[in-house]
Design goal:
By secondary structure, the chain is mainly α. The chain is built from five helices and no strands. Helix 3 packs across helix 5 and helix 4 crosses helix 5.
């Protein structure tokens, strides 16, 4: 039985998962198993050394994923295909209008110089 606190166990699980996933991805890309293992361990060590002691909350990226989807919808929008997009992305036509408006504003804001 381990004497690790729940937080220590969680940290160990996180770093182990990073190492294992890195190894898996590298092996899928044709990297030798030994090299992939070394890279996975190196990345986990880097995280522990450079981020150790910090309190970090890792978001589930829900808003980022929505933002990506919204950008794709905006790029597919041709000015008249609200209904087709609403069916394709399983949202209401009103939601498509709101998405187009929101992304268009974001695009304009990126290009426009802020005065204040």
């Amino acid at each position: 039985m381990s004497n690790d606190s729940p937080m220590e166990a969680l940290r160990h699980e996180l770093l182990s998962d990073v190492a294992e996933h890195t190894t898996l991805i590298l092996k899928q890309h044709g990297i030798d198993t030994d090299v992939a293992d070394q890279a996975g361990c190196s990345i986990s060590n880097h995280l522990a050394e450079h981020w150790g002691g910090q309190v970090v909350s890792i978001p589930k990226n829900y808003l980022y994923k929505l933002s990506q989807r919204d950008q794709v919808i905006y790029e597919e929008f041709n000015g008249t295909n609200h209904s087709a997009l609403s069916r394709k992305y399983d949202v209401s036509v009103r939601a498509i209008y709101k998405i187009i408006t929101r992304v268009r504003k974001r695009e304009v804001d990126k290009r426009q110089i802020q005065m204040f």
